[in-house]
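Researcher: Batch entry, complex prediction.
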Amino acid sequence: MKIRKKGKKEVPPVSTASLPDIVFMLLFFFMVTTVMRETSLKVTHVIPKAREVAKLERKSLVAYIHIGPPLKPLQAIYGTEPRIQLDDAFALPSDIPTFVESVKSQTNEAEVPLLTYSLKVDVKTKMGIVVDVKQELRKANALKINYSTSKIVDKSKSL
Amino acid sequence: MARSKREIQEINAGSMADIAFLLLIFFLVTTTMDVDTGLMRVLPPPILEDVPPPPPVKMRNVFVVLANAQDYLLVEDEYMQVEDLKDAAKEFIIGKPNNPADERFPEFKISQDPLIVKYFGPNYPISKQIISLQNDRGTSYELYIAIQDQLAAAYSEVRNEVAMNKFGKKYDELKDSKSEVDNEKAKAIRALIPQRISEAEPKEIGG
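Model: Structure tokens for the complex:
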């Protein structure tokens, strides 16, 4: 039998030629799925949890209103009370109509009725500020809103 | 001469992977994969001055939910825990179609809505239920969302039960179904059990 001729059998090296292809594949996946963050948050919020949540479709048609206590470094100036953040700056409820108008003007006219205003509010916030924001949104005819909540995954009956 | 034909040197592609890795890591870091979810609500349109106020609603048709600044709930004049709100609201939404004299539950009416007539017959009683939610400026957002969630859950469970009895399918399945017939059935159920959560104009309840 001469089939097993050589005693020393060398393991052939794993070819890494396809490594770039694999990496590129991953790269394209992330490039396609990525959404660049447009604003930097100045407030912190812990989003409440709920069960009956719906997915927010079409991110380009969503305007965010953040409400929560300012970030730690900003607390010396702005205090610890919850504040409203529109785009990149702190705002007052009275600034909301202007904000709504600017959002509407940046949107395709046919899609303006589909605009959703997502309220990202910290759980510890009192309703007073949220009510003010909602009243201003009503006045500005921005009626489609979404209380941002994350979905509860477990089946327990707690909140 | 030793110089013969000069061969074109191949470009070394070994560093390609490194470059790709670099880009990959950049996108990995900047990417936000979170899907935004939330409770969708439609605010009532602003009150215009020359429009007459809507006709008053009978108190027995209204399920009143009050939340005060201490995060206590008062539901139909009784204290309640948030977890129990769903069942209470469900009971109210379903009502007592067989016993319309019961004052604790809403009245019923007959609708000529073509969709309801088509699927439920012309004499199907429809509850006149409305849920009224009032909160104080001091109520925490957490409680508010919990209430909204419980009420939404109550509506969706009632819808699911009705759909299950009538069509043998859950409302959610009908709604998300690709078939036109199913979507129409879902629409009929929506007409039958409209989600009516009314939020009062804000005021100070105090407490």
